[in-house]
Specification:
The chain is an alpha+beta fold and 142 residues long. It has a domain at 11-100. It is built from three helices and six strands; from the N terminus they run ααβαβββββ. The strands form three sheets. The protein has a two-stranded antiparallel sheet. Strands 3-4 form a two-stranded antiparallel sheet. It has a two-stranded antiparallel sheet with strand order 5-6. InterPro entries: Prot-tyrosine_phosphatase-like (IPR029021).
Length: 142
């Protein structure tokens, strides 16, 4: 996953990985390694999340200045987010590009004021202009 000989997994290969008993351990280990990185260069942004949940609340979010982008939902409103890159590969500035599947690990907090990235439906769809993002599957407690 995070070594010099990494390769992109197709959707079929990714699903095979999840069939292994230690898949969650492998992926979570990589996630912890990435999250343990030095956080210098990030900023805290108090961003309105009304776009996500229809509320007027604001939530403070960590955004890395060097990878911050604004997604537009087509109404002139912009959602600030991180365009994440994977450090440790051959090129430390390599962005996720032209890939079939992106795995996102998230720790949903119950009873907290946090925005959910994805609809809880099994196959939900987000549309940002010409970009469409489809959620194929969610695994709980991994």
């Amino acid at each position: 996953m995070g070594c010099f000989n990494s390769k992109t997994l197709s959707r079929k290969s990714l699903l095979k990985l999840f069939e292994k008993n230690n898949a969650a351990t492998i992926i979570y280990g990589e996630y912890r390694k990435i999250m343990g990185m030095d956080l210098s260069g990030f900023l805290r942004l108090s961003a309105s999340i009304e776009i996500f949940q229809g509320s007027q609340r604001e939530e403070e979010e960590e955004l890395f200045e060097h990878s911050r982008v604004n997604l537009s939902n087509g109404t002139g409103l912009y959602i600030p987010t991180n365009a994440s890159y994977i450090d440790g590969f051959k090129d430390p500035q390599a962005y996720i590009h032209r890939t079939e599947v992106i795995v996102m690990l998230d720790y949903p907090r119950e009873n907290q004021f946090s925005a959910l990235f994805w609809n809880s439906d099994e196959e939900s769809l987000l549309q940002f202009g010409k970009l469409s993002i489809k959620k194929f599957r969610a695994y709980q407690n991994h």
